[in-house]
């Protein structure tokens, strides 16, 4: 119970820091208001930069605790490991994620990469070419549309290499990439695949482990970016002079 209370406090504190950082940069904790045409409404000053740096250090420590606790829970509980390995929770699909020029996970900019159920690269394309590779299927029983790989086609809600269905999200991003762009997260990435049997992972339950790996990555990136000397540059907006492509 004591461990639960202590961990709960850490979770709430980390959540508060993340919200505070969003508020400082975007003007609001929920829906950012600082983004305007051409950039941001105001730059980050040194005082706020230092504040974010301190919070980022705490977030990184929390990420490390989360990762170590998650690994310990899995390694100490044979039944959980069996469930993770169970075919009952496995779906062999294609996976889509964004990667940088080193094939590492990127959450902001990069190429869209798709790998097949064996982990082999199927296609890589720019975001602007999305409609050349992705189509949507409509079912009469739902308003939700089902995106699928255009080259494979829609074969129904079935798994396998002949089905155009693909997955996205934390696990899909890790399956599609060749690693993480920060050192601790990359180590955690390698450990996850080593412990769970290699790439790609098809277990839907492995998604939670992938989430923890991304938490480490994000914490490292915040800490890295806030130390960049350009982060307090006063030039944060370029006034648009027209619409791209129009004269």
UniProtKB/TrEMBL annotation:
UniProt key word Nucleus: no
Keywords linked to the UniProt accession: Metal-binding, Nickel, Oxidoreductase
Required co-factors: Ni(2+)
InterPro entries: NiFe-Hase_large (IPR029014)
Matches recorded under Gene3D superfamilies: Cytochrome-c3 Hydrogenase, chain B
GO terms of molecular function: metal ion binding; oxidoreductase activity
Family as reported in the entry's similarity comment: Belongs to the [NiFe]/[NiFeSe] hydrogenase large subunit family.
Name under which the protein is recorded: Uncharacterized protein
Native organism: marine sediment metagenome
